[in-house]
Amino acid sequence: MRKIKAVIFDLDGTLTPVHSVWQYIHERLGTWENQGLKSLQAFLAGEITYQQFAARDVWAWRGVARSTLESIVSEISLRPGARQTANELKGAGLRMAILSSGLDLLANPVAERLSMDLCLANGLGFTDDVLDGSVQIRVPWHGKPDQLPLICRTLDVEPGEIAVVGDGVGDAPLFPMVGLGVAFNATPDVEALADVSIRNADIRTLIPFLLGAEYNREEKVG
Predict the structure, then answer these.
(1) How far apart are CA 28 and CA 46, in angstroms?
(2) Stretch 32-49: mean pLDDT, rounded?
(3) How far apart are CA 76 and CA 197, in angstroms?
(4) What pLDDT does 212 receive?
(5) I need a labelling partner for 33 at 20 to 30 A (CA). Which of 7, 20, 66, 91 fits?
(6) Would the pLDDT of 213 be above 90?
(7) Can you list the alpha helix ranges (DSSP code H) found in the chain?
(8) DSSP 3-state assignment of 31?
(9) Domain layout of the chain by residue ranges
């Protein structure tokens, strides 16, 4: 039994109700059907790498002003109860991080609003505040486990003292690596790998599990 001292949150679909900030931007710019969707299908079919997939996405947006993109992502709301959840966890002494294969254009403002201790997400390249078509991949779609050592060092915790909260297949590999894996509004295949599964729009439903004094992995909750 281990005490949870830190929480890693996924962003898209977890802290926000939007499952992909990439797709959201595509749809707002009118590039989803002709470019974004086709690139996603090619990646899922194994025809291109994740780096190529992301590069195609961002290339479709080149020339768009930073202010326009910031305005688009500012439309994405937090889950109900996100601020209260963060405040209660912080007040209880837990450290918090965002780990997202989405974009720091959204992740950084959310991290600031929720007083996160660390934020890791992918970045867009700008020249003179205009998107130049480049992208910095820091967290690939299946690359979240690679960031765990950095998070442990930064937050000064052991893997067994961490809870991971997420909804996607990219989050699931982290579940057995940490003390508590929480599937939040996830698909059944992700839920099957989690210790706790929650289906509720309000993220405050996480609080009793995250603030429990100790958790025994054998006590699986679904």
Answers:
(1) 27
(2) 95
(3) 24
(4) 78
(5) 66
(6) no
(7) 21-29, 37-44, 50-59, 66-73, 82-91, 104-113, 148-155, 188-191, 207-210
(8) coil
(9) 6-16+78-210, 21-73
- Cβ atoms of 8 and 99 within 8 Å: the answer is yes
Residue 12 φ/ψ, nearest 5 degrees: -65, 120
pLDDT tens per residue, range 143-193: 999 999 999 999 999 999 999 999 999 999 999 999 999 999 999 999 999
- pLDDT band with cut points at 50, 70 and 90 for residue 3: confident
Q: What is the pLDDT of residues 106-116, one digit of tens each?
A: 999 999 999 99
Smallest Cα–Cα separation from 138: which of 123, 153, 117?
123
What residues pair up with 65 in beta bridges, in sequence order? Answer: 130
Contact between 48 and 42 (Cβ < 8 Å): yes
CATH class of 6-16+78-210: alpha beta
How do residues 124-142 score in pLDDT, each as one tens digit?
999 999 999 999 999 998 9
The 10 Å CB-count burial string (b at 16+, else e) for 118-150 is bbbbbbbeeeeeebebebebbbbeeebeebbee
Number of C-beta neighbours around residue 202 at 10 A: 13
Helical residues (DSSP H) of 82-191, grouped into ranges: 82-91, 104-113, 148-155, 188-191
Task: Answer for the pair 21, 73: CB distance below 8 angstroms, yes or no.
Answer: yes
